[in-house]
Amino acid sequence: MTKFIATWFYSGLIKPAPGTWGSLAALPFAYLMLWAGWGIWALMIACLVIFILGWWATFEETKDKDDHDPGEIVIDEVVGQWLALSPLFLFNTMFNMSDKTGFHSTGFYISFALAFGLFRLFDILKPWPVSWADKKSTPFGVMFDDVLAGIMAAITMVAIILLGMFF
């Protein structure tokens, strides 16, 4: 059961680049949550639940092993990717796009792809403080570096969206 969770439905077993596959596997769930009209707070609760579940599954999967962050563990990418998408949930909540008309626009898909790309960029490059958390040899560190990468991607998304609204 912990392998199923830690690898996010075994998507982390796909080679090459299991982290990218895990991030991609997170996207349909985020899309469905948006489509269902979930707001920002529901997404934050989902992120917290998956973070705690991922922390536990990562602990179980890395217990008594030398590699504290094996590539197939991608539950951390799920949380990070959802956080990177959080501006879409925020603006969905603020502008009441739950009538689903905004989900077929080019801008929506571009925003979705941009959030994916930004998260992967921050997760791969690991700028500070992502690099700081990545150096932690604990299941919390495995999860937290992707949380930070997701937050950095979300902040960048908000800046891009706001720039687009004003210019």
Commentary on this structure:
With 167 residues, this protein is mainly alpha-helical. The chain has one domain (2-166). 71% of the residues lie in helices and 0% in strands. It contains eight helices and no strands. The model has no long low-confidence stretch (mean pLDDT 91).
Q: Based on Cα principal axes, name the global outline.
A: globular
Instruction: Output the helix-strand order.
Output: HHHHHHHH
Strand content: under 5%
Total strands:
0
DSSP summary: helix tally: 8
Structural class: mainly alpha
Multimeric status of the protein: single chain
**Major sheet:** none
* End-to-end C-alpha gap: 49 Å
Rg (C-alpha, Å): 16 Å
Low-confidence stretches: none
Rounded mean pLDDT score: 91
- Give the total of domains: 1
Helical content, roughly? over 70%
In short:
By secondary structure, the chain is mostly helical. It is built from 8 helices and no strands.
Itemize the secondary structure elements and their pairings.
Elements: H1 2-6, H2 18-35, H3 40-62, H4 75-84, H5 86-95, H6 106-125, H7 130-134, H8 139-166
Helix pairs in contact: 2-4, 3-4, 3-8, 4-6, 4-8, 6-8
